[in-house]
Amino acid sequence: MITRKVRTSVGRLFVVVTTLIGLNHYQAAAQKVFSVQTKWVAGGEGGWDYLAVDPNAPRLYVTHGARVEVIDTNSGKLVGDISGLKGTHGVTFDDAGKFGYISDGGANAVVVFDRASLEKVASIPAGTNPDGIVFEPHTKTVWAFNGRSMNVTVIDTTKRIVIATIPLPGKPEFPTVDGSGTVFANIEDKNEIVRLDADSHTATATWPLTGCESPSGMAIDVVEHRLFSVCDGKKMAVTDSRSGKSLATPMIGDGPDAAAYDGAHKLAFSSNGDGTLTVIDAGKNSYPVLQSLATQKGARTMAFDSKNGRIYLVSAEFGPRPAATAENPRPRPSVVPGSFTVLVVGRE
Q: Which CATH superfamily is domain 35-46+209-348 in?
């Protein structure tokens, strides 16, 4: 006869074994959460920078040299472009669903366009080489971070005028906002984050990014108050957005330029120039890497679409690298014309 104590022990052992099997199955599945589902060949010539998903429409905006290409995310087809620009970097959108804003670094300007017609409606002077750009919903302002003049241009979106120019402690990279009047930006050459107040137009804190070299892309978890900065040296810096405290520096791929955060699944992403997409479990204090997905060499910028859970990356085929010169000691390889491609990553 099996005693009650033995039956209880056997039952507990069964529960433990079943739980371990379930955890192992989950962990194995988590390693292959995402895959490259399709590719859209956009073609054209020249380099590229940031991508942005319209929060109100199935449209992906891709900065591509002297124009911004607009792609239908349902079909992958090009629906139009915004051309006549000089050197595009980023795109952001107002919260009314009407207008978009392009940082045209080559023209030292922010270009306003109608999201329905894709027609340009205004060009507003900014600093030198505006790069990262973000809409701040609390004050209804657009913030253009100027890479060469090391300042930020603040634009009133109603009057379409510059209302402030704020000096920064170094060369800014990508910014983000918390939705409540605070703006954050990586300072690339100082390995720092600067915090700015949208009401007073002042910098309120500067935080060192310990263990992070040349921070570029940035994303935010508004609920848990965390900033994710991707850095050279294969590191992502996780920072408390209230105190500036360093929380972790998980490993990522090499040569990142963009970060994203999926609040529904508590995942942080890094798109890396070595041809990988790093997926990090931001729901755990140890920030483990769930997946390192092979994408395409050069696919170092991306946009996350919270509506469908997809991630869009861009790259192209590369030709030979030009010889170094005194003016350009680190030349980039040439881009093969017609090879510019959007990679669509989704859950398996």
A: YVTN repeat-like/Quinoprotein amine dehydrogenase (2.130.10.10)
Structure tokens at 6: 């033995």
| Residue carrying structure tokens 């000096």 | 167
CA distance to 12, 142, 218, 231, 306, per residue, from 175 (Å) = 51, 11, 6, 14, 19
pTM of the entire predicted model: 0.89
The answer, yes or no, to whether residue 100 has pLDDT greater than 80, is yes
Taking domain 85-208, whether its CATH number is 2.130.10.10 is answered by yes
Q: How confident is the model at residue 13 (pLDDT cuts 50, 70, 90)?
A: very low
- Residue boundaries of the structural domains of the chain: 35-46+209-348, 85-208
Tell the residue number behind the tokens 């050197």, with chain if given.
87
Cβ atoms < 10 Å from Cβ of 154:
21
Task: Express each pLDDT in 156-176 by its tens digit.
Answer: 999 999 999 999 999 999 999
Cα 135 to its chain centre, rounded Å, is 14
**Maximum C-alpha span of the chain:** 88
Where does residue 265 fall: left (phi above 0), alpha (psi -120 to 50 degrees), or beta otherwise? alpha
pLDDT tens digits, residue range 51-94? 999 999 999 999 999 999 999 999 999 999 999 999 999 999 99
Q: What is the pLDDT of residue 6?
A: 43
In this chain, the answer to whether the domains covering 35-46+209-348 and 85-208 adopt an identical fold is yes
The answer to whether the CB of 102 falls within 8 A of the CB of 123 is no
Nearest to 221 by CA among 279, 271, 282: 282
Among 23-27, 46-50, 203-207, which stretch is predicted with the lowest mean pLDDT? 23-27
Fill in the amino acid letter for 111. V
